[in-house]
Specification:
The complex is a heterodimer.
Chain A lengths: L1 H4 L8 H23 L3 H9 L4 H30 L9 H35 L8 H19 L28 H29 L12 H33 L12 H35 L6 H14 L15 H29 L8 H24 L1 H7 L3 H31 L5 H27 L16 H31 L38 H8 L11 E3 L5 H17 L3 H20 L5 E3 L1 H13 L2
Helix pairs in contact in A: 4-5, 4-6, 4-16, 5-6, 5-7, 5-9, 5-14, 6-7, 6-18, 7-8, 7-18, 8-9, 8-10, 9-11, 9-12, 9-14, 10-11, 11-12, 12-14, 12-15, 14-15, 15-16, 18-19
Chain B lengths: L13 H31 L9 H4 L2 H26 L3 H31 L8 H34 L3 H33 L1
The chains are: A mainly alpha, B mainly alpha.
Bound molecules: protoporphyrin IX containing FE and copper (II) ion (CU).
Chain lengths: ~650, ~200
């Protein structure tokens, strides 16, 4: 009995029991459904074992949307708790758990997979490649992310959620103050998915450097590919720092090391430093691909070449370097002294400059353009003013002396949501809408899409603008309640209303998918947006091999120029195509990683050792395996091409 | 499979070139990993709490032996790759085996060293200094251990399949890995041991 007690939730509530039942029912329903419709084989052959970048992208997308809803529920609960003074909907402990999981889920398990989804789906197509450099590794990256996410998400029903904030500062996150296994979940789940992210970084850089279509020099790459490239360079340099920090945190908690403890020389600030040396670059890992999406969308729907291509590239390079030089701005108040703070104030303000350059480039792209306001374009138009607001408050926070007033208040919370929602989330939704026909062969409904964009924007303004005010008035973040006398009640109620409106907006996305799947026309051309880059020169949806003939490229907007000048991108004739084979190993290996993580979290040493051996066994198997892939014959290509064209 | 015969075997196919570039990028990540460990080491090196300092526990003899073993192994794997380029499979396998034996000996001495540290009261849990010391050394040691298995697998594959573009590619990548571990060791030697003993 004692053995099982550790799996109990230390601080249960009816809501948690209800979720347990709900999770159980959903799992049973999924298993029953798959069995009833005889879909197990299909699921295994077409999805669990796939190494196709497009399918992996779609799996990332689905996971990201599910996580968006998980994180969204957390958010609505927090706003509901704060909507009135001295509310008792949640107690302090639950509130702590919820803001912690909200932050982790949204950054690590929603935003990251969302950008990986778009990178996977778009980049190989945009550079005229047939897949990524290491398709098998790509599948492993996805499954590691997925298992990390699953591990993190079972925490609240098995053993208890982490409750030390998404930044998990020590000594709070140490054994003395965080006694449940929650923080172990944090350390290990993020570790597992982080390894996946690192491998994606290596994969994408190699792909972009080596697999571009003939003629596509670096300075002729479409902007989304450029932004992906830079973001992945940041990933490769930033994620190992997180790996080490998490490993040290794990060892402090499980093996009694003294890295971040309060005695025997331990140094809690080391965690804060390491965390933000990863953490600040991380926010640029998220925003750069978002900028890439806006660049594609704005140029397409202004019917103009992107203004200032070179300065766009240069500003991203500068941002990538500088993103490693500003991390201290996250703890100006933690005692570095005036000189250090001043230096980091200046670097932080300086990083706003290349960001500003990009804003002007987008404006000038639109200037005198023939603008059509589609849903992706609407998101981009809303992004520009809203994001600028967030950037400006960022510069306010960057002034270290003033930050003593703003730090850890709602003002900060408003700032980062102000850059992440209109910046990252809107870009992902714009990308989702824009690339939907590429993935599924039909368009999402424009009317519902625009409603969504407006609801999200209005909801966003209502939810977060009041926080700037209450923050300046001193409302602290991460506090589960406040007194009547503070007078924060009304503004927090407005925030709650905003959160509800946003929730409606997100729900509309699901409705849109449902509606469009049912009613949208399947009769679309390969280029429904009249776009400019290579991904729109192949069929919708894309055949397994992407391009029957590898395209030849002359400019950064190859398709547009081909359309205008009437030249043929695809010269030559069909040749046999070599493609990688599917494999179950990435999925199974990630399952073993899940077991490993779970065993570590609960200090179950024997299963942990067995799982470790299992992981190495998979690596050994991979070393000896010979996998030469398969070939698609010219006849098959011809058949597919005829069929695809017939469907138009 | 398209092959370019003007290039060494390990670069001869497209996938081979991708693998090598990918591995270089991976080494970039590894550099960051060790750089983080070193940065943490420098931060915590003097925070010894109630535990011993570096000068009190470091012993020069095993460290010199370790350094000698690992540096030599880096040389022999270089010879191995040279033999591979000349197509001399047997010589290559000999050099690879010698490399792995040297690596194994290194690991043996390192294990002795760890036992010694624990013996003199510098365990993983003693102080921030010993935690980061053993973690940094341990991370390097774990890399060497992994390398021993990896190298062994490659030797077995070459025995079975001969020198093909695939096996040559793996061997070359493995040699990069091994040289990298050597470089990391040089940093450990200079900045942890020598600096600590001064
Ligand atoms: C114009 C550029 C920006 C500047 C000058 C800036 C400045 C800052 C500063 C100084 C802080 C720390 C404030 C404090 O803790 O008191 C901060 C926090 C934060 N920023 Fe920004 N920022 C900028 C852009 C961004 C972007 C683009 C993102 C994400 C896409 C972002 C995400 C965040 C997050 C997540 C936090 C808070 C993390 C936490 O403590 O939980 N920022 N920003
Ligand atoms: Cu920052």
């Amino acid at each position: 009995m004692e053995f099982f007690e550790r799996f109990a939730v230390p601080h249960p509530s009816p809501a948690i029991y209800a979720s347990m039942v709900a999770i159980g029912l959903v799992v049973i329903a999924i298993i029953a459904g798959l069995t009833y419709f005889k879909k197990w084989g299909y699921l295994w052959r077409e999805w669990l074992t796939t190494v196709d970048h497009k399918r992996i992208g779609i799996m990332y997308l689905i996971s990201a949307l599910i996580m968006l809803f998980r994180g969204g529920v957390d958010a609505v609960m927090m706003r509901a708790q704060l909507s009135a003074p001295e509310n008792t909907l949640l107690d302090a402990q639950h509130y702590n758990e919820i803001f912690t999981t909200h932050g982790v889920v949204m950054i690590i398990f929603m935003a990251m997979p969302f950008i990986f989804a778009l990178m996977n789906i778009v980049v190989p197509l945009q550079i005229g490649a047939r897949d990524v450099a290491f398709p098998r590794l790509n599948a492993l990256s996805f499954w590691l992310f997925f298992m990390g996410a699953m591990l993190f998400n079972i925490s609240f029903v098995v053993g208890g959620s982490p409750d030390a904030g998404w930044t998990s500062y020590f000594p709070l996150a140490g054994n003395d103050f965080s006694t449940s296994v929650g923080t172990n979940y944090y350390m290990l789940a993020i570790q597992i998915s982080g390894i996946g992210s690192l491998m994606t970084g290596i994969n994408m850089i190699t792909t972009i450097l080596r697999m571009r279509a003939p003629g596509m020099t670096l300075m002729k790459m479409p902007m989304f590919t450029w932004s992906t490239f830079i973001a992945n360079v940041i990933i490769v340099f930033a994620f190992p720092v997180l790996t080490v920090a998490l490993a040290m945190g794990t060892m402090d908690r499980l093996f009694g090391t003294q890295f971040f403890t309060m005695e025997n020389g331990g140094m809690d600030m080391l965690w804060a430093n390491l965390f933000w040396v990863w953490g600040h670059p991380e926010v640029y890992i998220l925003i750069l691909p978002a900028f890439g999406i806006y660049s594609e969308v704005i140029s397409t729907f202004s019917r103009k070449n992107l203004y200032g291509y070179k300065s766009m590239v240069a500003s991203m390079v500068v941002i990538s370097l500088m993103s490693f030089l500003v991390w201290v701005h996250h703890f100006f108040t933690m005692g570095q002294g005036a000189l250090t703070n001043s230096i980091f104030s200046i670097t932080t303000m300086a990083i706003a400059v290349p960001t500003g350059v990009k804003i002007f480039n987008w404006l000038l792209t639109m200037y005198k353009g023939k603008i059509t306001i589609t849903t992706p374009m609407l998101y981009s138009l809303l992004f520009i003013p809203l994001f600028t607001l967030g950037g400006v408050t960022g510069v306010m926070l960057a002034m270290s002396a003033a930050d003593y007033q703003y730090h850890n208040t709602m003002f900060l919370v408003a700032h980062f949501h102000n850059v992440i929602i209109p910046g990252v989330v809107f870009a992902m939704l714009a990308g989702l809408t824009y690339y939907w026909p590429k993935m599924f062969g039909f368009m999402l409904n424009e009317k519902i899409g625009k409603w969504t964009a407006w609801l999200l924007s209005i909801g966003f303004l209502l939810a977060f603008m009041p926080m700037y005010i209450t923050g300046l008035d001193g409302q602290a973040r991460r506090m589960y309640t406040y007194s009547e006398a503070t007078g924060f009640g009304t503004l927090n109620m407005i925030s709650f209303v905003g959160a509800i409106i946003m929730a409606v907006g997100f729900a509309l996305i699901v409705y849109n998918v449902y509606y469009s799947t049912r009613y949208a026309s399947r009769d679309i051309s390969s280029d429904p947006w009249d776009a400019r880059t290579l991904e729109w020169s192949t069929h919708n949806p894309v055949p397994e091999y992407n391009f029957a003939i590898v395209p030849e490229v002359k400019s950064s907007q190859a398709l547009w120029d081909a359309k205008k000048e009437g030249h043929n991108l695809f010269k030559g004739k069909y040749e046999e195509i070599h493609m990688p084979n599917n494999s179950g190993a990435p999925f199974l290996m990630s399952v073993v990683f899940f077991i490993w993580g779970f065993a570590m979290i609960f200090s179950l040493w024997i299963p942990a050792i067995i799982a470790t051996i299992g992981i190495f066994a998979f690596m050994a198997h991979r070393s000896f395996e010979q996998d030469h892939g398969h070939h698609i014959s010219v006849k098959e290509i011809e058949e597919t091409e005829t069929k695809m064209r017939g469907a138009k | 499979m398209k092959m370019d015969h003007s290039l060494p075997l390990e670069y001869s196919t497209d996938q081979n070139k991708l693998n090598i570039l990918g591995f270089w990028i991976f080494l970039g990540a590894e550099i960051m990993l060790f750089a983080t460990l070193f940065a943490s080491y420098f931060t915590l090196a003097n925070r010894t709490g109630n535990g011993p300092t570096g000068a009190e526990i470091f012993e020069i003899t095993p460290v010199l032996i370790e350094t000698f073993l690992l540096l030599t192994s880096s040389f022999t794997i270089g010879l191995g790759i040279h033999a591979m380029r000349l197509g001399k499979q047997k010589a290559m396998l000999t050099f690879f085996s010698v490399t792995l034996l040297l690596g194994l000996a290194f690991l043996g001495v390192e294990i002795y060293e760890f036992v010694h540290y624990v013996h003199v009261g510098a365990g993983l849990q003693t102080s921030a200094f010993t935690s980061i010391l053993l973690t940094t050394l341990g991370t390097h040691g774990a890399h060497v251990t992994l390398g021993l298995f990896w190298g062994l697998f490659i030797i077995l594959q070459i025995k079975k399949r001969g020198l093909t573009p695939q096996t040559a590619n793996k061997s070359f990548i493995f040699s990069l890995y091994w040289h990298f571990l050597d470089v990391v060791w040089i940093f450990i030697f200079s900045f942890i041991y020598l600096k600590g003993m001064m």
